[in-house]
Design brief:
Strand order of the largest sheet: 1-2-3-4
Structural class: alpha+beta
Order of helices and strands: HEEHHEEH
Distance between the termini: 32 Å
Number of domains: 1
Largest sheet: 4 strands, antiparallel
Shape: globular
Number of helices: 4
Strand content: 5-15%
Number of strands: 4
Radius of gyration: 16 Å
């Protein structure tokens, strides 16, 4: 969560004048403000999205208490950290309650622009799925 916020602050300073090409045609850093959910769905729906995220955070807290294995705890921790990182954006980068935009800065061709919190959420979900298959 702290690393995510530091990276977003860097992006807001370093990318204001335009994108940085890291690997041409593969990876760019580009500043984008997302007021919606993943892939900019539900644009300007930040308050509703924020309330849903708060609900998810509460559920994850309870799930962490019952996490039976280290993999499950790590996965839930990653999801929790990513959710809180993006929720901080919604709280801090808007004029009203939860209407702020999430700072995205990692761009790959033919895909959405995303951030470190999004990566943590997706890795956490993948680890949860792996854990389910390992249990079976």
């Amino acid at each position: 969560m702290i690393v995510d916020q530091v990276a977003k602050a860097w992006a807001q300073r370093a990318l204001v004048d335009g994108p940085i090409v890291v690997i041409d045609g593969v990876l760019n850093f580009r500043l984008f403000y997302n007021t919606g959910a993943s892939f900019s769905l539900f644009s300007n729906g930040g308050a509703i999205i924020g309330l849903v995220v708060i609900g998810v955070i509460v559920v994850i807290f309870f799930a962490l208490r019952d996490a039976g294995r280290r993999l499950e705890a790590i996965a839930l921790g990653l999801i929790l950290g990513g959710a809180v990182g993006n929720l901080i954006d919604r709280l801090a980068r808007g004029s009203g309650f939860l209407d702020g935009a999430v700072v995205d800065y990692i761009q790959v061709p033919f895909f959405a622009t995303f951030n470190g919190a999004d990566i943590a959420i997706n890795v956490g979900v993948a680890l949860l799925l792996i854990g389910v298959f390992i249990k079976r």
